[in-house]
Specification:
Mean pLDDT of chain A: 87
Distance between the termini of chain A: 24 Å
CATH superfamily of the largest domain in chain A: Winged helix-like DNA-binding domain superfamily/Winged helix DNA-binding domain
Oligomer: homodimer
CATH architecture of the largest domain in chain A: Orthogonal Bundle
Strand content of chain A: 15-25%
Structural class of chain A: alpha+beta
Number of domains of chain A: 2
Radius of gyration of chain A: 17 Å
Largest sheet of chain A: 3 strands, antiparallel
CATH class of the largest domain in chain A: Mainly Alpha
Number of helices of chain A: 5
Largest interface: A-B, 32 and 33 residues
DNA sequence: TCCTAAATAAGAACTATTCTTATATAAGAA
DNA sequence: TTCTTATATAAGAATAGTTCTTATTTAGGA
């Protein structure tokens, strides 16, 4: 069950287990898609009407710092949060602001090999994000 | 001269030539780096103290639509504007919020070839942006 | 020179996010 | 279990980058 999965992720992270964190964890795992804070708020406040907006941002930030989720920036400048931890890149639709995960191990390897050959002076690489911008059809909105 | 270059870019674009547009064009060409709207404002208002903030955004937006410049978002979520039109990717420093252009034709070719082989279903690629996030040293701030 | 659509100035409005402070609570200690 | 205390949360004010509104000005064609 998603609730148990969420709870165990929290336990492993070392974060205090609170109802708010469980609710947001559950929302992230259920929604799956790259949710905005606002969408998460809508989802979560159905059952937890008093959950404050600031708390949502606090919790999402805490999850980011523990590596449970990752921030993804959209074309339209709103932060979205990604629960997928497996290495992947993103397809950005520039019309509907939808982001789709793009898994491609071959591509990952290609890039990794490429940059390990290169030596970027004065720059140590932490991660490489490939934004594939284009047009997703049919459009999805959330 | 930069002023002439700016003016001729404007003429080619078909945009009306106004003192404000010339000033911003000149600023972009002089600063070169990925400027924030605020930095451009500071630069431009030295000689044009009445240039309104909204006008700067309008003009930058107009330039973007004509393809003269491109928007680039930083790690800290502030919009920056890039005058470089040659194909390139970006090095993002996650500490000093500096963005450096990264030119690499071999990489461009590699990616282009890779995705022309692939067939992403329901998605037509317009452009591929590689964000190379890491640590730029020494740090630059602006 | 005149005309008109387009551009600008000024500043209010907006919105995603962060901050502040008082209150509540998780979870280890006794 | 109850107590303790550092941590988390609620509520809403504050912030900041950006957009919007409206009156005024201006570029460039007629």
């Amino acid at each position: 069950m998603i609730k148990d999965k969420g709870r165990s992720i929290l336990t492993e992270s070392g974060l205090k287990i609170t109802p708010q964190r469980i609710a947001i964890m559950e929302a992230l795992l259920t929604i799956k898609d790259h949710s905005t804070a606002e969408f998460i708020k809508e989802y979560v406040t159905k059952n937890n009407p008093n959950l404050a907006t600031g708390t949502i941002y606090n919790i999402l930030e805490a999850f980011c710092q523990k590596g449970i989720i990752k921030k993804v920036k959209t074309e339209k400048d709103i932060m979205r949060y990604d629960v997928e931890t497996k290495s992947h890149n993103h397809l950005y639709c520039d019309e509907c602001d939808y982001i789709k995960n793009y898994f491609d191990e071959e591509l990952d390897r290609l890039l990794k090999d490429y940059f390990s050959k290169k030596n970027l002076s004065n720059f140590s690489i932490k991660e490489i994000n490939l934004q594939i911008v284009g047009n997703y059809s049919p459009h999805k909105n959330n």
